[in-house]
Amino acid sequence: MEGFYLTLLYMFVKFIYLLQAITQFVLLNSFLGTDYTFWGFEILRDLANGREWQESGHFPRVTMCDFDVRVLGNKHRHTVQCVLMINMFNEKVYLFLWWWILLVIVATIASLIYWYCMSFLETQQYSFIAQYLRVYGLLDGQAHNVLEHFINRCLRKDGIFILRIIAANAGDLITTDIVAALWKNYLDDEKKRAVLSPSPPPPPALTHPMASKLDEIDAADSFHEEFLH
Questions:
Q1: What are phi and psi of 213, to 5 degrees?
Q2: CB-CB contact of 120 with 89 (8 Å)
């Protein structure tokens, strides 16, 4: 997990948000206890089909109420029709909550997919850093391999993630300055490392005992040919 611990932690938190929103959505549907799987959609469909709001609701608006009236010492029970005004308000509140939680679920899924692509696709990482380096003209046609090494070995996924957070909250101007400073420091470190690292030694000479014999034979042959001439 070296280099992408913070990114994975951020993705995990978003997954917890998604799980929490889905749990609330399921509990709300279970609490409503209707035959509609997608209660909010069905309410809007009923209204679109011409059903009146009073008929399409699942909260009882009208019920029968029993009450007693005492007349001349005698108790008379009356059953009349009552209107439950509070349920008309409650249904609108739950309809709003249903659509709000659904919107939160969709937005969280979209955000989770977006950050996954931005954090783990190499093309997105490369283009994100390259766009800031081109502002100062620090990226030429021969620096692509160096940029790839800068992203994979220096910044890594957590570094790019932090830069994206800075860009989202502080703006592109500050992010450009930070990326340019990191790039220059990286190039300076690479130059120092190249200077400090010793050059590879030349290949060792042939030290086998037969090598000296072969050299003596070659020298003798050349001397013999010169003497004959």
A1: -65, -40
A2: no
Helix (H, G, I), strand (E, B), or coil: what is residue 108?
helix
DSSP secondary structure code for residue 36 in this structure = -
Q: Which two tokens stand for residue 32?
A: 């409503």
Task: Measure the CA–CA gap between 19 and 108, rounded to whole angstroms.
Answer: 10
pLDDT along the chain (229 residues), means of 10: 84 96 89 72 74 61 80 78 81 87 96 93 90 85 80 90 94 93 90 73 47 46 47
Give the pLDDT confidence score for residue 118 in this predicted structure: 92
Is 36 within 8 Å of 62 (Cβ atoms)?
no
Give the residue from 27, 224, 15 showing the smallest Cα distance to 113: 15
User: What separation in angstroms does the CA of 211 have from each of 128, 146, 205?
Assistant: 59, 45, 10
User: CA 146, 149, 151 angle in degrees (round to 5)?
Assistant: 110
Q: For residue 173, what is the DSSP state?
A: H
